Fold each of these.
Amino acid sequence: MPLHPQAREYLARYPSDPNADLAALDPDAIREMRAQDGMAAYRGPLTKLPFVRDESAEGVPIRVYRADPGDRPLPVVVYFHGGGWVLGSVKRNDAAARDLAIRTGAVVVSVDYRLAPEHPFPAAADDAWTVVRDIFARPAFYQSNGAVAVSGESAGGNVAAVAAWQARDAGLRLAHQVLVCPVLDVAMDTPSYTDYAKGFGLEAAEMAWFVRQYARDADPADPLLSPLRLPDLSGLPPATIVTAEYDVLRDEGERYAARLTKAGVPAALRRFEGALHGFSVLPGLFDQAVEAREYVAERLRESF
């Protein structure tokens, strides 16, 4: 499919800099630049909820959202933001977490996992697993009814997928895993990395820079870093995987869905034709973001 008209407009308004020296980029400078990028208005409304509270899960900062005004136990969705393990925060993704709580009717726990390069691999994965484990250990604190799912976008999809297999190996049953445009293999050798290396938002060189900040000298085949390399996918929780057609990460997400299915894990894959990486977090720019969010929420509601 050709680029969606809204994707073409986005690329015209926010072209990449072909002269950027990625090796010289300073993570703090990028964070400051992204904080001032004017995208906040496109991330969706900060809908008022009856319950929003900052808490801690064994030292990991979290923000807990609840759209239901009562106190009855509910399912819990653990939400991991994107940003290449370097960028992003609970605050920056506040609107997305609120939207997820409204659409699913679940308690949403948004995780402020540690960022690279200050906290390299496996810090983000360790924090993700800490929070998931804590929700199972303290269901009353989270007002959980025992049904727990993980959901993440981009690098957040990476740590969500890792937490899913860690939960399986620990004997903790997750109801579902949602992976949206996820990073699942840092080998970066798929056809989509070649086809969409430049000019489509997230570029191959940029993704390689993110991987270097997080992974450093880690083995790229380590499933804690590349869950697509996990030898045995059987017994993992049912999955919903969303990919974007014009995304360097597309093929690894679709390969993961195929491997899950082959391993006997129910896995629904939906590719959004003509879409760019990260479209789902910008409902103010992409109509497909709203469609993707409702699709994900429906899948989560069904799993609960």
Amino acid sequence: MLLIDNDCVARVLSMRDCIDVQERAFAGLPGGASIGRPRIDTYVPTRREDSYYRFGSVDGATGGVLAVRLKSDVMVWPGGADGRAESEQKYCVEPGTYCGLVMLFSTENGAPLAIVNDGHLQHMRVGGAAGLGTRLLAREDAHTVGMIGSGGMAQTFLQALVAVRDIRRVRVFSRQEANRTRFAREMAAQLGIEVEAVNAAERAVRGADIVATCTDSMTPVLDADWLEPGMHVLALTPREFDARVASRFDVTIAQGHERLPMAESERFSQRVSGSPNAFIGGSSEERARLPVSRGARVDTSGWPVYTDVITGRAPGRTGANQITFYYTVGNWGVQFAAVGGHVYREALRLGVGLELPDRYFLQSIRN
């Protein structure tokens, strides 16, 4: 049994490998070689009036490995002048610390294989999904990127785009000038391409071949009037675009569908914050703390998914002037199994990670 921290993950996981293992795992979905359960969140009120506790879990299996991803977060939603939430923030214990784990098990004999810190793996997994969708749908001659957002997810999004297309120039916008300037400087040095920080989202998007939104905003950040023929668009969350933007897309492909077939009720909702499936504790007054994303929610349930395109059941891009959109939500459990399994195998090969005695995890009492 290995304990693998973020530094070990960063050492053994490249972006190209991250994209490739997900591609192979997704190819196994139609025939049942890969399988995953949608993410489910449980919300419990805290003693503070501005927060809620959220536990999230998702699991999936591929290539002889089952992964369970667990998250323990206190959620807060800072408000604007009107008191409505502008962004979603989280922490564990105190601001700046987080708790997320990926547990890996063998599907051959059930053995616990590893416990992995999920921070770097999560960022790489999400970036890899952006690369997967871009490889599937973007024009082969796509060279410029318009990026909205400059956090950790934006970094791995851009790394993935560079891995699958000949990206030469990037324009990035985010609300804080210092953050977008830092992002431009660091990513230009890391990737060896031109990265320019701009002072408006529209300036980032206009003229780009690929547009990526990677923010924690609770409201849409992309305007339909900025989209141009031939663009490929990616979004980190469903809150970042609205129905008017979606109406401009000629091709819409979802990575997968995470929503459970359940009716909304007092204790279950698919409209709370960024949760696809939320079981909610607390009184009616406490539940009023939970935000619902503003703007018209886009229904992606009827969209074709990645596997529909690779199996020929749905077309991808068929013309250079089409505006394509890849929604990087879905099949999360399979992604964690694919990427986590690769990290585990590489850690074994390189002899990194902390070995833990099996006796801590195996027992003689039948459960």
